[in-house]
Amino acid sequence: MKFMNVHRLKVPLSKKDIHVLRSGDLAYLTGEKVYVICTADNAKYVIDRIDKSTPLFDLKGSVVYHCPIGFKKTNKEYVVRWVGATTSIMSEEITPRIISLGARAVMGKGGMGRKTLRALKRYGAVYLATVGATSALLTRRVVRIVRMFDPAQRLCELEVKDFGPVVVGMDSHGQNLYEAVWRQARKKFQKLI
135 vs 43, 68, 106, CA distance in Å? Predict the structure, then answer.
């Protein structure tokens, strides 16, 4: 597969940053406001706190990372031991709300559904896919845990440097790399049978 463009992005992200990204582009992220929200239940907890006017953090310009994370506490700080990616589609029902509250990117693996694609287009955001089996590489790109909001739920903010490569799987223009690849695969399959 040929990737279109490579982008180096500074987090927090602006709408302008997102607008230039196209499905199939590669990106590297640097900055803070990368929030680990591993499960749909974690996302619901974040939303509940916002709805009760006691938000854990401000989602504007953020990257929400569907990520299991290992960490240890040393003295008064938390240190990352490893990061990965978890299947994003499990959070399909709640992700449009996260995007509507200002997240500019959702990152994980496996893509997302039509509800998320509509929200990405409506609010100017993207879905970034991590590459499978790159946990060791990605872990080295995490500078630190900026804040630990809830250790039990593993909700935290990361600072990253040259985090990637990640692939723009779904863009703010309504393009979906996953669907494009499936269409190509079906055409090739039809030629074989």
Answer: 22, 10, 17
Round to whole Å and give the CA distance between 29 and 62.
Answer: 11
- Identify the CATH number of the domain defined by range 6-192: 3.20.130.10
Instruction: Going residue by residue through the chain, which has 193 residues, state the pLDDT in tens, using 9 for 90 and above.
Output: 555 899 999 999 999 999 999 999 999 999 999 999 988 999 999 999 999 999 999 999 999 999 999 999 998 899 999 998 888 999 999 999 999 999 999 999 999 999 999 999 999 999 999 987 888 999 999 999 999 999 999 999 999 999 999 999 999 999 999 887 787 877 887 888 7
DSSP state of 8: E
- The domain limits of the chain are 6-192
Query: Which residue is listed with tokens 């804040």?
Result: 147
Q: Enter the tokens of residue 131.
A: 């590459």
Following DSSP, what letter does each residue of 84-152 receive, concatenated? Answer: ---BGGGGTTTHHHHHHTT--EEEEBS---HHHHHHHHHHT-EEEEEPTT-HHHHHHTEEEEEEEEETT
Cα-Cα-Cα-Cα dihedral of 6, 142, 92, 148, to 10°? -150
